[in-house]
């Protein structure tokens, strides 16, 4: 259950968060104050305990009010997960307290890396070795949660001279790192989404998340995608709740479809949680890809059903702003990396092996 203070704030600010009229610097502290970021983090590390399935539920609960806030929450919680799974205990001890408190933003810049893992895209940052670490050059074109008051971004790095690609945490204070202006999006504008340019950035091994990206990425991918699925789950739940509220005597014909979608969503969520807790998706990523696709499609169907249940009111500005926002949110779910097209391409590639 989401903290009621956070729930009310998200409901009031949902439209502003989407169009960018709400200060994006305010989102992360609000999530932190409600302890959303601590779910699934061991108590001895400052968390509330629990597991990654609980973190998925937390993101889903946020998404039922605002996908923009849930997008930020996913980025932050994913970065926290990278630290939890990193062998670099000193880096974890240094960064985790500020990440959990919302003082520091964690940007999951591994979208490029996940596409690299599937052979879809080359790594966009390269490293030249130095006596004290590496010199980095490159650009990440779309990174979320780059909070202007302080962030650290995860990125996969290619060795310019060969060798295994590796994963670094890149702090915003380092010389040669440039954050672009916020990207102009159709929605989710208060999510601190921008590009990162690296020119002669010097980093030491102190910032190493993992020395081998090909080992680390498959290990964190279940949490990366599982947490991402929380956005679809929350959006679908909210639209289905709106459908139920609109079912009057003239629209009872939609009840069967409502119950079918509810059942589908519950079934998919159960499969997702069971797979995450059993560790099945590390060895069977295709099963997770299929769940991500199915959940995105369920969210789209739920929003479409909300339109039918709402009728003409959904198209009136005075009544339909919440629906219009969810419509835009549903358009984002299929394209967030890895997109549904990328996942289907990977599934087809695996089927042809």
From TrEMBL:
Pfam families for this protein: Acyl-CoA_dh_N (PF02771)
Database matches in Gene3D superfamilies: Acyl-CoA dehydrogenase/oxidase, N-terminal domain, Butyryl-CoA Dehydrogenase, subunit A, domain 2, Butyryl-CoA Dehydrogenase, subunit A, domain 3
InterPro entries with a match to the protein in the record: Acyl-CoA_Oxase/DH_mid-dom_sf, AcylCoA_DH/ox_N, AcylCoA_DH/ox_N_sf, AcylCoA_DH/oxidase_NM_dom_sf
Residue ranges of every copy of the Acyl-CoA dehydrogenase/oxidase N-terminal domain listed in the record: 22-103
A GO MF term: acyl-CoA dehydrogenase activity
Top-level lineage group: Bacteria
Protein known as: Acyl-CoA/acyl-ACP dehydrogenase
Source organism of the structure: Pseudomonas allii
Organism placement in taxonomy: Bacteria, Pseudomonadati, Pseudomonadota, Gammaproteobacteria, Pseudomonadales
